Amino acid sequence: MSTQQGNRFFFNVDWITILIFVALCAIGFVNIYASVYNPDTADVFDFSSNYGKQLIFILTALILGFSILLVDEKFFSVFSPIIYGATILLLLVVLIVGRNVAGNQAWIPIGSFRLQPSEFAKFGTALLMARYISTFNPKLRDFKSIAFAAMIVLLPLGLIMLQPDTGSALVFLSFMFPLYREGLSGYFLLIFLGMIVLFIADFLMPIGLIIFIIVMISAFFIYQNRRKQKMIFTIVIAAVVSIAYLYVVKLTYAKVLEPHQRSRIEIMLGLKTDPKGAGYNVIQSKIAIGSGQTLGRGFLQGTQTKYGYVPEQSTDFIFSTIGEEWGFAGCSVVIGLYCFLLLRVINLAERQRSSFSRVYGYCVASIIFFHVFINIGMTIGIIPVIGIPLPFISYGGSSLWSFCVLLFIFLKLDSNRMGFI
Amino acid sequence: MDNLFDRKYTIQGLFILVCLILMAKLFYIQVGSDKYFISAESNVLKKIYTFPARGVIYDRKGKVLVQNEPVYDLIVIPNQVKEFDTLDLCNTIGIDMKGFHKRFTKAMNQSRYQPSIFEKQLSVQIYASLQEKLSRFPGFMVQNRTIRHYPDSVAGQFFGYVKEVTKKDIEEHEGYYRPGDYIGKAGIEKQYNDVLRGERGVINMLYDARNVPQGSYAEGKFDTLAKAGEKVYSSLDMDIQKLGEQLLQNKVGSIVAIEPSTGEVLAFVSAPGYDPNRMVGRSQGNNYMEIFGNPNRPFLVRPTSGYYSPGSAFKPVNALIGLQEGVIDAETPFNCPGGYRAGNHTVKCEHVDGNISLRRGLARSCNTYACNVFARIMTQKKFKSKVAAYNNWEQMVRKWGIGQKLDIDIPFEKKGILFNSDEYTKRFGKYWGYTTVISLAIGQGEMNTTPLQMANIMAIIANKGYYVKPHLIKAIGDKKTISKEYVQKNYVGVDERHFTPVIDGMQEAVNSPWGTAVLSRVPNIIMCGKTGTVQNPHGKNHSVFIGFAPRDNPKIAIAVIVENAGYGSTYAAPIASYITEKYLTDSISKGRQAQVEWMKKQVVLPIMPKPKVKYQPKQTEDTTKKQLPAKLEATPVTDITAQPKPIEITK
């Protein structure tokens, strides 16, 4: 039920968020321009070049975004299962007809563009998640509702894993945040954190030592809760599971992960240096970013950028261009913009009356957060190389459009926050 | 629900935390460390070096002693090499296929993308034929540089040599040198390396990730041209240097001549020597080993590191100290019964002179006289102990440059030997006195000097009391600068008036019928000198002569040592006289030219087959044949025409 007139739609839109969105797109364009800059053929409107294409992508994304603002707000809620279903279908299609690029079957070629279904699966999943929670209002305390929510996430995640595109799949873990917000126990986050800690520890310490530490910690907690039989039982289970997990990780690592993934992890953990091989990207990216120093070398002055020392620089490693040419100052601005955007989206989500809008808002923030963290973390070597784009900045139509759609659907929902869906 | 609403802060807090972690890491690599900036520069910037020519060295008359010759290094960039006729390349530069693969693998191991040296120092001739074909060998290029050339082929030990830097050199010079650079390793080339080496030129080129050049960095703002090394003017006189080397050929020994008023070294002969041109170019390594293998050790720089007892050459110093201490005057007579009895042993004289005083004592090289003077110096009443007396004497001797370095500008100078009282106490215990060390009076015993120190003693006497530190380079660069220490006068603490009788005695030694070196008199020039026949624990006595000329306003002070050649008057004195004559008159008088030629032909090598020669003539021939070729080869051929054919074994 909408009480607003068509011409008032735009007045309710959160212009600050749009401003940040445009700013990030502009930063992206400038840096893509710099990273493929060639003084001999410098023309801003050269549409065969990456920056020319990106300009088209940005313009079409803006058109797409504003068209979304014109769509009836009920559409997203109502059609969410269908959108979700369509993205799942696309994920299946890509496994069959997809173009194999660099070992990943992630792209469907359409004309001169390549469609990446995993990008669209993110907002498809976000929409269905919002719909599920707003419709059934589950408490997320019982197994059934948790399992159902998990199913929504794990289906696309599993399909993407089959491509295999681990990076994009990992992003789906970000749905933990909205679920946590909607009542999922904080233990899940803790368990997740514990899994990561154990995973890293598994590489850095002998397994015996880790088991010893787990046993000691468990013993401490058992002593603390020595009057509560149930707690003791839980702690024992947790300890046993953790130790089992350690072995599973070891096995998975040895049998399931591909050699390049293994070496990426080892390089990130500092167990291995391989400046010519797998470590090359990270080392060159760090050199480029580090060489920017405080104020950067200036637009088009980055030697590492100009002479192609960082591979995949306009896409996954675009942040190295920012780091080199704009320095710590530029990086701070970009990270500041992201941080502001994330906090803004969360705040907007919290002011929604409809839980659909709120859950969706949390999904948007979490997805963007994961992308930013993983991408920037990868370029500065605190996370293994996981090929996912930097939202709004990385070159690529699929990624830009999907983030644009993701964000503008939320802006549309927010512009209508006084209404009910 | 309130509870769940609070979770917003948990999530927002997590977002902020992660952003801060990212910022912290960025701060660390961007602001906190230069490491990445430097890596970025080395990624992109490749410095291409051009090598400077080393400085030219002139002699004191302005003649070129060392010049530079172009050579060409063949360079390879492995990843640019495509299929080509390897055999053709091998034939052109004179290597075999095995050598080719070895070099190529080495270059590959260094870097696939960076140029590395494939073959060094190709001559102009090889370069000419290679140049035509170079386009057929993709990935190979030529870089030119210069090597040393010595037109006169003399004074090897003086020049030293230049070699490619070793890892150790690179470390020691903290990054100045890069592999492939040259550095002076001995002699003047080492001592004045910083002056001679010049400055590398550098072109800063930008390269992209595929190693394709992208133009020069900052429009060549930081590029520099190679700057040739500075000129250096040596104090050597090539004419007497050459004569000296010829006179000492097939002998072992040393000649040092100094201009007394300036301390400039006029001749710096070390025999056996070697042709410095052999230490240059592609066969440097082999030649080095060959020269190194010569048993008479051509690499030993005898003028500054050969140790010889000064022998009688020390007597003038002893007499001057006596005069300065006032224990004798010029007329004090001592009786020479043919020896001096000190404790339970006797220092013998070659003669019985009866009562003699200073002049005659020096002219006749009387040991008894010298010992008496020494005894008086050591038994002066003013000293409370024998040690104090010795210390005083030692200090006075040290001022003459004996037992310490003269700081000549050539590396590896040795300081000689002069014991201090502690060393004697260590050797003899508490009870020792002048009788114990009486050999010092005649320059034997615990006293060793280098030929340079001996020549310097003569310079001091010529100057009547002072010396300028001897040096081989008299001026550097266009401005002809020279270090201050090489113009300063160093006084030895003996008054000028005491020198006259000593110089008289030395004049008599050369010019009077009873003098020891009278046969070496130089026509029309009054030379003052002193012969020495130095006892040599390892074999035959060394022949020594020291002197200066002319008597008034001396121009040259000289020390000549011929090892194992016996009396000072037979070898060292005539050699000194020829050189003095040549230097002062620029020629050798007619009557003496034959003597010079005779001297050049003499062979006095310490390592020779021994008396067997006399008794078994047949075997002699065999031994000589076996031994001599090696000797002759190892001995530098300073002048092919003057190479002696008959081998005389001097007794």
Automatic annotation (TrEMBL), chain A:
<dbReference type="GO" id="GO:0051301">
    <property type="term" value="P:cell division"/>
</dbReference>
<feature type="transmembrane region" description="Helical">
    <location>
        <begin position="326"/>
        <end position="347"/>
    </location>
</feature>
<dbReference type="GO" id="GO:0071555">
    <property type="term" value="P:cell wall organization"/>
</dbReference>
<dbReference type="GO" id="GO:0008360">
    <property type="term" value="P:regulation of cell shape"/>
</dbReference>
<keyword id="KW-0961">Cell wall biogenesis/degradation</keyword>
<dbReference type="InterPro" id="IPR001182">
    <property type="entry name" value="FtsW/RodA"/>
</dbReference>
<feature type="transmembrane region" description="Helical">
    <location>
        <begin position="54"/>
        <end position="71"/>
    </location>
</feature>
<dbReference type="InterPro" id="IPR018365">
    <property type="entry name" value="Cell_cycle_FtsW-rel_CS"/>
</dbReference>
<feature type="transmembrane region" description="Helical">
    <location>
        <begin position="145"/>
        <end position="162"/>
    </location>
</feature>
<feature type="transmembrane region" description="Helical">
    <location>
        <begin position="183"/>
        <end position="201"/>
    </location>
</feature>
<keyword id="KW-0573">Peptidoglycan synthesis</keyword>
<feature type="transmembrane region" description="Helical">
    <location>
        <begin position="392"/>
        <end position="411"/>
    </location>
</feature>
<keyword id="KW-0812">Transmembrane</keyword>
<dbReference type="GO" id="GO:0009252">
    <property type="term" value="P:peptidoglycan biosynthetic process"/>
</dbReference>
<keyword id="KW-1133">Transmembrane helix</keyword>
<feature type="transmembrane region" description="Helical">
    <location>
        <begin position="231"/>
        <end position="249"/>
    </location>
</feature>
<dbReference type="GO" id="GO:0005886">
    <property type="term" value="C:plasma membrane"/>
</dbReference>
<feature type="transmembrane region" description="Helical">
    <location>
        <begin position="78"/>
        <end position="97"/>
    </location>
</feature>
<protein>
    <recommendedName>
        <fullName>Cell wall polymerase</fullName>
    </recommendedName>
</protein>
<dbReference type="GO" id="GO:0015648">
    <property type="term" value="F:lipid-linked peptidoglycan transporter activity"/>
</dbReference>
<feature type="transmembrane region" description="Helical">
    <location>
        <begin position="359"/>
        <end position="386"/>
    </location>
</feature>
<dbReference type="GO" id="GO:0016757">
    <property type="term" value="F:glycosyltransferase activity"/>
</dbReference>
From TrEMBL, chain B:
<dbReference type="GO" id="GO:0008658">
    <property type="term" value="F:penicillin binding"/>
</dbReference>
<protein>
    <submittedName>
        <fullName>Penicillin-binding protein 2</fullName>
    </submittedName>
</protein>
<dbReference type="GO" id="GO:0006508">
    <property type="term" value="P:proteolysis"/>
</dbReference>
<feature type="domain" description="Penicillin-binding protein transpeptidase">
    <location>
        <begin position="253"/>
        <end position="580"/>
    </location>
</feature>
<keyword id="KW-0997">Cell inner membrane</keyword>
<keyword id="KW-0472">Membrane</keyword>
<dbReference type="InterPro" id="IPR050515">
    <property type="entry name" value="Beta-lactam/transpept"/>
</dbReference>
<dbReference type="InterPro" id="IPR012338">
    <property type="entry name" value="Beta-lactam/transpept-like"/>
</dbReference>
<dbReference type="Pfam" id="PF03717">
    <property type="entry name" value="PBP_dimer"/>
</dbReference>
<keyword id="KW-0133">Cell shape</keyword>
<dbReference type="GO" id="GO:0009002">
    <property type="term" value="F:serine-type D-Ala-D-Ala carboxypeptidase activity"/>
</dbReference>
<keyword id="KW-0378">Hydrolase</keyword>
<keyword id="KW-1133">Transmembrane helix</keyword>
<keyword id="KW-0961">Cell wall biogenesis/degradation</keyword>
<dbReference type="GO" id="GO:0005886">
    <property type="term" value="C:plasma membrane"/>
</dbReference>
<dbReference type="InterPro" id="IPR017790">
    <property type="entry name" value="Penicillin-binding_protein_2"/>
</dbReference>
<dbReference type="InterPro" id="IPR036138">
    <property type="entry name" value="PBP_dimer_sf"/>
</dbReference>
<dbReference type="GO" id="GO:0071555">
    <property type="term" value="P:cell wall organization"/>
</dbReference>
<keyword id="KW-0645">Protease</keyword>
<dbReference type="InterPro" id="IPR001460">
    <property type="entry name" value="PCN-bd_Tpept"/>
</dbReference>
<keyword id="KW-0573">Peptidoglycan synthesis</keyword>
<dbReference type="GO" id="GO:0008360">
    <property type="term" value="P:regulation of cell shape"/>
</dbReference>
